[in-house]
Design brief:
single chain; 215 residues; 2 helices; globular; mainly beta; Jelly Rolls; disordered N terminus; 4-stranded antiparallel beta sheet
Length: 215
């Protein structure tokens, strides 16, 4: 067993992906003790579910949301909504630990100040993936995207501004945070299918917290 797969990134510091995009290696590790109980509370209030795409396909990764609004997908399309369509209640409030991490990460990447109003929580298991896409449903595209990896490793695809542009493959480990904004805000990105693994804190899954300013 390669224990390096389950530890925080061996590489510390910042890895540049573009003029306004970077990976903050291991940045979220210091927040994990606060993040995990908060994550479990969000899961209990609005459980993970696999949403349907506008084309009628079931998404590979399960997801939920917290914050003032949540991202939803169904045959009517992709949008933000204040109400969880499964529970009929507002999405759980964004935990303070989540918001602090997002703000500190944006500042560390030189893309603050950042005050997210939505956090998409994706749950990947081995074999789950996310196709190349742009984050384009937000009204405020001047704010960055802050994406936190927890649990088993993944390979992040970071492409260009066209779907057919070659995408860079970026290994992500527990605690890594990717931040992109400015001229890199509308780059296509995704996740390759996850390989089987088990993490001592998160279990056999990867949790991705994606913070956005939707309104």
């Amino acid at each position: 067993m390669n224990l390096e797969l389950f530890a925080p990134s061996a590489m510390e510091g910042t890895e540049e992906l573009g003029r306004h995009a970077c990976v903050l290696r291991g940045f979220a590790v210091a927040f994990v003790e606060e993040l995990m109980p908060a994550l479990h509370a969000v899961e209990r209030e609005s459980p993970f579910r696999r949403m349907m795409t506008a084309g009628g396909h079931t998404m590979s990764a399960a997801m939920t949301n917290c914050g003032e609004c949540g991202w939803v997908s169904d045959r009517r399309g992709y949008r933000y909504a204040a109400i969880d369509p499964e529970t009929g209640r507002p999405w759980p409030a964004m935990p303070d630990a989540f918001r602090r991490l997002a703000r500190h990460a944006a500042d560390a990447a030189g893309l603050g100040p950042f005050d997210p109003d939505a956090c998409l929580v994706n749950c990947y298991v081995p074999g789950s993936r996310m196709g190349l896409h742009q984050d384009s449903n937000e009204k405020d595209r001047s704010a960055p995207i802050v994406s936190v990896s927890l649990g088993i490793p993944a390979v992040f695809l970071f492409g260009g501004h066209g779907r057919g542009d070659k995408a860079r493959r970026v290994p992500l480990c527990h605690g890594d945070v990717v931040v992109w904004g400015g001229e890199d805000r509308m780059r296509f990105h995704g996740i390759l299918p996850l390989k089987p693994a088990d993490h001592p804190v998160v279990g056999p899954r990867r949790i991705n917290l994606t913070f956005r300013k939707a309104g």
